[in-house]
Amino acid sequence: MIRITKIFTFETAHVLYNYDGKCKNMHGHSYKLFVAVKGNPINDLDHPKNGMVVDFGDIKKIVKSEILNVWDHAVMLNGTSPHKKLGEDLENQGHKVIYCDYQPTCENMLYDIANKIKKQLPETVSLAYLKLHETENSYGEWFAEDQD
Ligand SMILES: Nc1nc2c(c(=O)[nH]1)N=C([C@H](O)[C@H](O)COP(=O)(O)OP(=O)(O)OP(=O)(O)O)CN2
Ligand SMILES: [Zn+2]
Known about the structure:
This protein has 148 residues and is of the alpha/beta class. The chain has one domain: 6-pyruvoyl tetrahydropterin synthase/QueD (Tetrahydropterin Synthase, Chain A, 2-Layer Sandwich). 28% of the residues lie in helices and 34% in strands. It has 3 helices and 6 strands, in the order E-E-H-E-H-E-H-E-E. The chain has a 6-stranded mixed beta sheet with strand order 4-3-1-2-5-6, sandwiched between helices. Strand 5 and strand 6 form a beta hairpin.
């Protein structure tokens, strides 16, 4: 069993509703996302993906369509909070708004990312690990073995 990892970056703004610090203000991050999947490399000379757990390009397609294309250069707001109204005002002025049903911390974003990626992975591989950097010095991690 081998793990392979691909790294992505995206720029997203967010606001932490009711937070007791500076991140209650709208601000942005250059998020850095590490996606690791595990499986057995294909061992078949006739297979175009011989030697691969999964093509890195296939991971890229999934993460682009599920995460990057949706979240990059968007404002992420807690749609279950009064920030819903803030989002509607921004949308009316042409801004890209993502309403999540959670507080948009890196912890909750990791759960969301994990669920979105897992749904799209081929049956031969599974999600092993995620790391999401909010800043160079602050990040959260998701490990498959830690989940219920
Ligand atoms: N457990 C969490 N704590 C905080 C989160 C989070 O997602 N999970 N998020 C924030 C803010 O959104 C933002 O990320 C600020 O974090 P912080 O590391 O405090 O920011 P700094 O600018 O001080 O970062 P440096 O890398 O140290 O410059 C707050 N807390
Ligand atoms: Zn932040």
